[in-house]
Amino acid sequence: MGRTTKRRRVKPTLASRKLHNQDTLLLARPGGIEVEVISTGAAIRSIWVPTREGRRNAVLGYPSLEQYREDPYFMGATIGPYANRIANASFGIDGRSYNLDANEANSGNCLHGGSDGLHRRKFRLSLLAHESTIICCEVSLADGVNGFPGNRNCLVTYQLPDPLTLRIDYRVTTDRDTIASLTNHTYFNLGGSIDEHEVAVYADHYTPLDQNQIPTGKVACVAETQCDLRQLQPLGDRAYDHNFVLNQAKRPIKQAAKLSSPSSGISVTVFTSAPALQLYTGDGLGKPFWRRAGLCLEPQQFPNAPNEPAFPSPRLSKDAIYQARIEYRFERALT
User: Does residue 185 carry a catalytic annotation?
Assistant: First the structure.
């Protein structure tokens, strides 16, 4: 949780081991970051970054692997089949309505794919030798799970294309028309309080929310609002759980956000193929963590897009392929 420790040098290989009947894989490159991925939710458990004071874990994670099975915070997890909220836990395709798991009890919304979403699934982990070693995480979702249509095969891959970059690729196929929006729910803490972190989101627009955290359907300019984060600035005590419409929408990979800790000298820039990004400042975090212990930068499709024709369509047609990418590019001060 953002702590620094002197660790022995990690060899530039990928180790596999079994802990408490839970698969975990480690990805590392010489002089670079070290990433641990577990099979529950294909979650990121740790990202160790080399700094001037040793190696620092830049993300939150549970000390026990068993805690991920009952985790209420989506800690580091793969989110899907649809990230964020779907209003009233329902949507339609071609005139047919689908009722989803209303797992957000206070609103009746479906949040992050429902209570049995990808964050709860045990993925099959394997290694693929390529230009760099890749962790492959695979799972299948049956037609009707949490109300979503289609027998779907989901593949999440993690790799380090260079020593300080973590790349995540998502791939989903289906045998029925459905919807798809996958992301990662890592909570970053690069050092110290997140209130002292600096943040930027490269978006001229955002989607205003109603009382149930559902977009109103409008797209508004960030100028002269709390959502104007176009320049790197101290976060302070401002709270966010907002969807930003990213600039350069037509670019296949775009710069989405940046987070920096002046105290540790670590920064991370998020690049993505997604059209939007959710900034969440962890105000709902509790034990064993604490409120605002970390923040999330979640590339995604628009929340509630299946019910908003004006938003980019998240529809995944039968026999088509959903693909998305996230890159976390780290920098660190060594002097």
Answer: yes
